[in-house]
Amino acid sequence: MLRRLVLAAAALVLAAAPAAAQQKTTVILVRHAEKALEGGSDPALSEAGQARARALAAELADDSVAAVLVTRFVRTQQTAAPLGIAPQVVPVEGALEAHAAAVRAAVLSHAGHTVLVVGHSNTVPALVAALGGPAAIAIADTEYANLFTVVLEEGKPPVFTRACYGAADPSGPCAAK
């Protein structure tokens, strides 16, 4: 009887092991929304940016976002604010590679969940690459509608997608057609 219980318990543990190995982490990356023209080096969002931030929250409403990573800049924090999740600030000072490594580590600390990362036109491409996505992404100064996703699953290559959300950009991949 005891032997059967031990074998049954072992079978349950072995059956659960592949599920743990197949744990998916979904990382959604966006550039901050449109910023106001005034505000110095740390401007708030413009009215268009506030509308885009609300559009992002609506876009992600069904994605069960568990964590939000932002920089110290107001525009990244305001872009994420409509989700209602307290953000984790990841330092952006210093080399871009150090910031990308810090974001990657923060993402991996939320393994198995969906994580939103709000960055900047110069950081998002490096963050996508650090997570295993393509290294050749460029975001123009007029582009705000890009929504990048990198799905990380142990034992599999990262899966990258690029989509658009909110109002169309004046040019680029998310321009009105």
Q: Can you describe what's shown?
A:
The chain is of the alpha/beta class. Helices cover 34% and strands 20% of the residues. It contains five helices and six strands, in the order αβαβαβαβαββ. It has a six-stranded mixed β-sheet. A hairpin with a 5-residue loop joins strand 5 (146-153) and strand 6. The radius of gyration is 19 Å and the shape is globular. Residues 1-21 have low confidence and may be disordered.
In brief, what are we looking at here?
With 177 residues, the protein is α/β, with parallel strands linked by helices. It has 5 helices and 6 strands.
List the keywords.
177 residues; disordered N terminus; alpha/beta; 6 strands; Rossmann fold; 5 helices
What's the structural blueprint in terms of helices and strands?
Elements: H1 2-21, E1 24-31, H2 47-59, E2 65-70, H3 74-80, E3 88-89, H4 96-108, E4 114-119, H5 124-130, E5 146-153, E6 159-164
Regions with little confidence, pLDDT below 50 for 5+ residues: 1-21
Q: Helix- and strand-based class? A: alpha/beta
Helix fraction bin: 25-40%
Full CATH superfamily name: Phosphoglycerate mutase-like
General shape: globular
pLDDT averaged over residues: 89
| Order of the strands making up the biggest sheet | 3-2-4-1-5-6
Number of domains: 1
